[in-house]
């Protein structure tokens, strides 16, 4: 296994970790993302969408173990980065946490698509 492959597996592990964290501790996301869980429905939404999506995408990469799944995950990160960039401009939400997230998403997108 070469350095690029190892890096891709680290990206998958990070995605699994984020999904698991969002699923287990949805209220903790407020500190970084600003998302508030003020109702049981909101908590379920964060667990399902933030946790479930990332767990599902990373799980597919683990189960299928193919370059196509790494590319798929990279494309997802690229889409998130593009939408975040548009939103930062449209919503005037140029915050430190958004810039950090954008950097991470861009780096993961590039790494996983290579």
| Secondary-structure class | mainly alpha
Helices and strands, in N-to-C order? HHHHH
Percent range for β-strand residues: under 5%
Tell me the number of structural domains. 1
Rg, Å, rounded: 15 Å
Average residue-wise pLDDT: 94
Ends: how far apart?
A: 15 Å
Compute the number of helices.
5
**Poorly predicted ranges:** none
Quick one: biggest sheet? none
So what's the overall shape?
globular
Helix content: over 70%
Total count of strands: 0
Task: Characterise this structure.
With 114 residues, this protein is mostly helical. It has one domain (3-113). 82% of the residues lie in helices and 0% in strands. It contains five helices and no strands. The chain has helices spanning 3-24, 30-33, 40-64, 67-90, 96-113. The longest helix has 25 residues, at 40-64. It is globular, with a radius of gyration of 15 Å. The mean pLDDT is 94.
Structure described in brief:
The protein has five helices and no strands.
What is the element layout, followed by pairings?
Layout: H1 3-24, H2 30-33, H3 40-64, H4 67-90, H5 96-113
What key attributes describe this structure?
single chain; 114 residues; globular
């Amino acid at each position: 296994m070469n350095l690029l492959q190892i890096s891709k597996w680290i990206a998958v592990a990070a995605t699994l970790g984020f999904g698991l964290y969002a699923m287990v501790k949805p209220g903790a996301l407020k500190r970084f993302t600003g998302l508030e869980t003020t109702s049981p429905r909101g908590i379920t939404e964060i667990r399902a969408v933030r946790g479930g999506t990332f767990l599902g995408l990373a799980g597919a990469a683990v189960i299928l173990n193919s370059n196509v799944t790494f590319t798929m995950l990279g494309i997802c990160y690229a889409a998130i980065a593009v939408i975040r960039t548009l939103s930062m401009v449209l919503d005037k939400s140029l915050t430190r946490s958004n810039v950090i997230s954008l950097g991470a998403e861009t780096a993961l997108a590039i790494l996983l698509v290579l």
